[in-house]
Design brief:
By secondary structure, the chain is mostly helical. It is built from nine helices and no strands. It folds into two domains: 59 residues, Homeodomain-like (Arc Repressor Mutant, subunit A), CATH 1.10.10.60; 143 residues, Orthogonal Bundle (Tetracycline Repressor, domain 2), CATH 1.10.357.10.
Length: 208
């Protein structure tokens, strides 16, 4: 009996996960294109080709669905940053600049940038959104700063916590500016922000 039941359960679980992923993908596109407030559960269900009941089976409400989408974006962005750093195992400065480069790529991404920096505070509220930023953006920056200080690349006098907070604010503001910039101006703005932040980081180095 059990041998007959187990494959059915496995297929059901697989289908449930596929449905959940389809909802996340449809929701990400809808929230980025139309905004959190203007997107309905019915819109997302129709785009994913499921019923509204299927949406509520996986997510209690629209806010919970958005938070799941945002978490997926944050996890994907963090993975990109960590992979970029890993490509410079013997060059910490190169790793820092690679992390900055990838972070700005996330900011200009039409879905990631819009969801993280524009719709995120609207959908989750400022407090919850800040918690997400602390976990990912601040966490990544603090890790890199501490690594650079311990390696002697940055001065030990650099206040890591305060500097990480300031740089997180810079990234956040850059994310908003890039997400809201007209597409025709986004590339130049991204380049200018990269140059400005590189210059700031360069100023922290003990050896230029």
């Amino acid at each position: 009996m059990l041998s007959n039941v187990e494959p059915v359960k496995s297929r059901r679980d697989q289908y449930a996960e596929q449905t959940r992923q389809a909802l996340l993908e449809s929701a990400a596109t809808a929230f980025a294109e139309h905004g959190f407030a203007a997107t309905s559960i019915a819109d997302i269900a129709a785009s994913a080709r499921v019923t509204k009941g299927a949406v509520y089976h996986h997510f209690p409400d629209k806010r919970a669905l958005f938070e799941a989408v945002l978490n997926q974006c944050d996890e994907a962005a963090q993975s990109k940053v960590l992979r970029a750093i890993a490509k410079h195992p013997d060059d910490l400065w190169g790793g820092v600049l690679a992390a900055l480069d990838v972070t700005l790529d996330v900011c200009v991404d039409p879905i990631f940038g819009r969801l993280i920096y524009v719709e995120g505070p609207v959908a989750l509220g400022w407090t919850r959104w800040r918690e997400c930023e602390d976990e990912y953006t601040y966490g990544n920056i603090r890790l890199l700063l501490n690594s650079a200080i311990h390696a002697g690349m940055f001065s030990p006098d650099v206040p890591a916590h305060a500097m990480a907070q300031l740089m997180t604010g810079m990234i956040t503001h850059a994310g908003v500016a890039l997400a809201e910039a007209p597409p025709a101006k986004r590339k130049k703005l991204r380049g200018d922000i990269y140059t400005a932040m590189q210059q700031l980081l360069q100023g922290l180095r003990t050896t230029q």
